[in-house]
Amino acid sequence: MTTAQRGRPGPRRTLTDEAIVTAALELLDRRGADAVSIRGIAAELGVAPNALYTYFPDKAAVLRAVADRLIGEYDLGALANPARPWRQRLHDLALSLRSRLLDHPGATAMLLGAPMDGPRALALGEALLAVVGEAGLDERDAARASYLLIVYVLGSIALEAAEVEPTRPAPPEAQRVAARKAAFDAVPATTYPLTAASADVMSRYITTEQFRWGLDRVIDGFAGPAAAAHQ
Amino acid sequence: MTTAQRGRPGPRRTLTDEAIVTAALELLDRRGADAVSIRGIAAELGVAPNALYTYFPDKAAVLRAVADRLIGEYDLGALANPARPWRQRLHDLALSLRSRLLDHPGATAMLLGAPMDGPRALALGEALLAVVGEAGLDERDAARASYLLIVYVLGSIALEAAEVEPTRPAPPEAQRVAARKAAFDAVPATTYPLTAASADVMSRYITTEQFRWGLDRVIDGFAGPAAAAHQ
DNA sequence: ACCTGAACACCGTTCAAGT
DNA sequence: ACCTGAACACCGTTCAAGT
């Protein structure tokens, strides 16, 4: 993945699409989202900034490729495995996507800033359609349901990442919850009584447990709670 | 809202927080998200760029204020009106938020780029808790459900806006669907058979009708489909 | 075909004035 | 207290070379 040297050599062929994406991710993790600039990536690769324009038409295309790489890190084999109940496979997908993306806070903007039409995003969508089909939905509702799932997962991650963004590695869950709790405790109970009273639950939105709860509600919504019973 | 001239005059007091937010929105609508820069806003107001730093600590704070303004445009009175069924009020809120935010594509990044902790966002959250409570959920589930709703609405809008972003006014729905349809028709049916077969449904994700469908599934998920029957 | 140097037209932010 | 001019350290992108 790091190199690969495709095509004929020409005068140099120092770079690869994949090498550029790797450098961008490296930079993202080490120095944060703002550091992911054309000039920064080029420096990371030891190359002049404008060299990247041989491989990508503009910065947005680079970011789209980074997003597609992150999405493609999930093993689609696990999603297709018919030995496991479909609901469980959807859980795995959603939870894995979430933790993987929260490992790179700052990547959220790349995921939501452009249509996810990369090859790996398409492959994921295809696999998702198959799984949701097993839930007994017809073609039309299967398509809608898989989109609903994507909306839920990406929406959740976006709202979680918004509270973290600047930091390079997302702090542990307990710490994020504590910070949120402090913010909600500062809400005046006189003007926002319900909010203040729910501060405890609210501060845990940002939690794996709550993410699971929402995920089950979404699945119940399109598959019916009955489906939860027989898994 | 445009001016207001609070506090003592001092040497000038030309600006207001609100005037700055207004100028930013003006710029957003007229020249797109990339034009919303500190320098751009300042030019819009006929002022030196660094003048804005008297009112906001940095650019991120300006963008957060813009996001709060957009959220606050919804009339909370309608949400609290006990004469209408709660489910209908949730629909109104979600649909109004969606169309309002799609009127400003490019605002999505501002909504998802930072925690929504502005005064108007808090007020909306408070009202939402009250409505969801009417659905018969206890305090804990009401908090979770209202967050789920927000995730759905903002997630949907983000994915929709991602396909539009650069354009200043979002093109009409029919045109957006057609563009999406063309993209899906280009998907190779041999590698992605389910995706290609569903191209028709997929291209309509971006549609008010589909948004309603997902919204109902989400509400069914936490309130039970039974609630749909008696409204 | 692929890379470079130099340049263009921008950014956000800071700092030392001025009033 | 509020605004300005000037500067700093950056951006993305383009263009005319060089190999």
Describe this structure in words.
The structure is a homodimer of 231-residue chains. With 231 residues, chain A is an all-alpha fold. Chain A is 63% helix and 0% strand. Chain A is built from 13 helices and no strands. Mean pLDDT of chain A is 88; it is low at 1-10. Chains A and B meet through helix 6, helix 7, helix 8, helix 10 and helix 12 of A and helix 6, helix 7, helix 8, helix 10 and helix 12 of B. The first copy, chain A, binds a DNA duplex (19 and 19 nucleotides) through residues 7-15, 37-39, 47-51, 53-54, 58-59.
The CATH topology of the largest domain in chain A is given as Tetracycline Repressor, domain 2
Query: Can you name the CATH architecture of the largest domain in chain A?
Result: Orthogonal Bundle
| Helical content band of chain A | 55-70%
The shape of chain A, in one word, is flat
User: What's the CATH H-level superfamily name of the largest domain in chain A?
Assistant: Tetracycline Repressor, domain 2
- What's the CATH first level of the largest domain in chain A? Mainly Alpha
Sheet with most strands of chain A: none
Largest interface: A-B, 58 and 58 residues
Mean pLDDT rating of chain A? 88
Oligomer: homodimer
Distance between the termini of chain A: 38 Å
Q: Output the number of helix runs of chain A.
A: 13
How large is the share of residues in beta strands of chain A?
Answer: under 5%
What's the total count of β strands of chain A? 0
